[in-house]
Amino acid sequence: MITLYYAPNSTALTAHIALAESGLDYKLDLIDHYGDKRTSDGRSYFDLSPIGYVPAIELEDGAVLTESAVVLEYIADVASASLCPSHGDFKRYLVLQWVHFATTELHQKLMRLTIPGVAADYAAANMEQVTARFAHLNASLSGRDTLVGDTFTIADIYAFVATRWWMNKIDMGDYPDLQRFMDATARRPAVIRALQEEGIE
Prior knowledge:
Blueprint: E1 2-6, H1 12-22, E2 26-30, E3 56-58, E4 64-66, H2 68-78, H3 90-112, H4 120-140, H5 154-166, H6 176-186, H7 189-198
Parallel strand pairs: 1-2
Antiparallel strand pairs: 1-3, 3-4
Helix pairs in contact: 1-2, 1-5, 1-7, 3-4, 3-5, 4-6, 5-6
């Protein structure tokens, strides 16, 4: 069984949804970002994730993986679900391209706005970049339900999670195809399960 170390509504939600989609057995271990960062069995979380960020997954043999993009790829590769095309299939790299787009162009830009004392002009420039990224996402989803091919993948998972964080900061009316994608993804049973398990509305 895989153990997912998480904090609610963090980037660990990507791994959580992927696990729920995958059919793999998993259990959750809540890490208090602002507390002592201990696992449920009393270990220091820093022994698993040296910089203390979530997610991390721990396998039955004690092996640990961190970094959301890598965790997603691992889950996809060991799952029976078609969360990412196999090695050698060019669509695999298109999926990974979108995963890295979400983590660098959406997730990290949002994190920059959480730094105390961010200058107004920097924040405005950051938001201008984000709106361009959302326009790209919106155009890529025109007439489509998924980002790559016809199958829901880890690319869709990360795009969904990263977009959720921005939805109260931008006018989603400007991105109707992205909004449609968000609504459809939110109705997936695995997404509903993960959100409920994290206590997210």
